Amino acid sequence: MKKVDFPIDKRKWHPGLIPGLIVLVSTYSKESIPNIAPISWIQMVSFKPPVLMFSGSRGSRTVNNILETNCFCVNTVDSKMVTKVFNCIKWFGQERIKKCGFNLSDAELIKAPLVDESRAHLKCTLYDTKEVGRAVIVFGEIKAASIWEEIALADTISAYKKLDQVLYMEDGIYALFDRLHRIE
Ligand SMILES: Cc1cc2nc3c(=O)[nH]c(=O)nc-3n(C[C@H](O)[C@H](O)[C@H](O)COP(=O)(O)O)c2cc1C
Predict the structure, then answer these.
(1) Is the CB–ligand 1 distance for residue 22 below 6 Å?
(2) SS3 per-residue string spanning 86-132
């Protein structure tokens, strides 16, 4: 098949070549004001210590809060939540939380809220940061995790269906994990 040049600017990628898992990162400010933000540039980094990373923006509430409290929570997003999650960035702070209608509660062990509607949570403490251009890569050590019991007890393929996570493809487009295959 003939190949043609493709942009190096990710915003011009159609199709997107590196889809990212959509999550909500939840934080508190040092005054305990809660915040949630959608993130799709997220990745595991290390088994031991159990460290993940995500890319946030310098000056964003999420990054500022994490630098203040050293804590954050990664909350899964499912197909029922995804439209609200895409649209929520029209608002900021408390108004965003109110417009989404998500309920928050305190996580155990760390100073961060949890999004109650999420089916699983990774509770993290700040491990390190690295600035790249306007981005701040936040490394978080996973200190605790929780998931719906029904998902934890399900067989492997059904567990992915019940978790029902969502991938960011490009602006306004997401994909679901509704076709799972075992390697033969
Ligand atoms: C689906 C989706 C995925 C996003 N992924 C990221 C991301 O990975 N990194 C990032 O910096 N911003 C991302 N954004 C944009 C931030 O969520 C947005 O800038 C938000 O306002 C940051 O909120 P905060 O200032 O409360 O932290 C994403 C937005 C959407 C809707």
Answers:
(1) yes
(2) HHHHHCCHHHHHHHHCCCEEECCCCCCEEECCCCEEEEEEEEEEEEE
